Amino acid sequence: MVNDKDLLSFDYKKDFPLLAANDVAYLDNSATTQKPACVIEAERDFYLKHNANPLRGLYDLAMQATDIYEDARVAVQKFINAKSEQEIIFTRNTTESLNLVAYSYGLANLKPGDEIVTTIMEHHSNMLPWRMVAQQTGAVVKYIECAVDGSISDEAIDAAVTEKTKIVAMAEVSNVLGRLNPIAKAISAAHKVGAVAVIDAAQSAPHMAIDVQKMDADFLAFSGHKMLGPMGIGVLYGKKALLEAMPPFLSGGEMISFVSRDGQEYAPLPHKFEAGTVNAAGAAGLHAAIEYINSIGFEVIEAREAALTKLAFDAMQNIPGVHIIGGKTAEEHKGILTFTVEGVHPHDIAAILDADGVNIRAGNHCAQPLLDHLCTGATARASLAFYNSAADVERFINSLSTIRERMGYGR
Ligand code: PMP
């Protein structure tokens, strides 16, 4: 059990060199998280002591590099409780993982009139690849709409998923609303009609435990850099039988077991989907990030993030002219608070906060159809991680409270 009194007292920032060296309240964690020293060290250690091209050389150094890379895969397998490490494909990021599914599974399995069901709140990365594949196959993309509070009802899922549906793609947590989506319902609705379910876990993997077997997702994607790991390493989980039946996404070196003048045999999973020289140092960094997360535990991470979110949410309710998008309670925001300030452009909000040492994001958050659907236009977004402190929230709130006055409005 996490003790409420001690919950926010521990200083995690000392583990993060950038945060220890800079006096900023970093509240742009949904875009990318800061990196603990152990992650930076793991990447550095790879290049300092073990650098060789993994999966190729037969000399000791190359085998060390291979072991480091494959150990990271096993760490990811355990992290999301996949049945086999062959189900873990390393990619560059969530975007590449989703494109892999769209190009490889989508192009091979969709025909004119088939339907791909996604939601209006998806990040462009879980929307544009489906449109691309629909254009090329004659399939149709359908959107599940959300209510003003960001919720998606079971009825909306049931209405959208039909016998024509072949793919259901949904984010577990929206990067704008921070709301936990009904993925269990979406996955079971997909399976009822024989469709596959693709889960975008970019905003959930850093914040809560994921069990792909319990969830029964067919594919699940996330990025290392959003969960304390390095940029340039991402993950695609896929059920083995599906991955085995899919054609490669990229082809070339590394992903074959045999090539003749006119033919080739592809490498077994997972290497069939990892063409070219891999990002072994990135995988080592992701492995270190997973170990660091495990050493803290999701019970503590979730409890701290919920406490910080509530502090910020409650204080924002009391600032005149500030409006939070989506859920009406703090519990409906998994560390993400997207908001507007009446009469102030989000870029001005971000610039003023920055002048006070608070880093947030402003713009459309790569989810323009959602902002159109909610009629908000551009917004500002503060996103929290467990290593943020109550002092970070206070600094944010203090600065936010002055914005309208600084822009020439009365308080
Ligand atoms: N999906 C969601 C929900 C996201 O928040 C993001 C990143 N903001 C992405 C996909 C894309 O992630 P990446 O840029 O790491 O590919």
Automatic annotation (TrEMBL):
Gene Ontology biological process: cysteine metabolic process
GO molecular function: cysteine desulfurase activity; pyridoxal phosphate binding
The keyword Transferase belongs to this UniProt entry's keyword annotation: yes
Catalytically driven reaction(s): (sulfur carrier)-H + L-cysteine = (sulfur carrier)-SH + L-alanine
Pfam families the record matches: Aminotran_5
Keywords: Pyridoxal phosphate, Transferase
Aminotransferase class V domain: residues covered: 26-396
Keyword Acetylation applies: no
Cofactor(s) needed: pyridoxal 5'-phosphate
EC number annotated for this UniProt entry: 2.8.1.7
Coiled coil: none
Homology family: Belongs to the class-V pyridoxal-phosphate-dependent aminotransferase family. Csd subfamily.
Protein name: cysteine desulfurase
Protein source organism: Phascolarctobacterium succinatutens YIT 12067
Native organism taxonomy: Bacteria, Bacillati, Bacillota, Negativicutes, Acidaminococcales
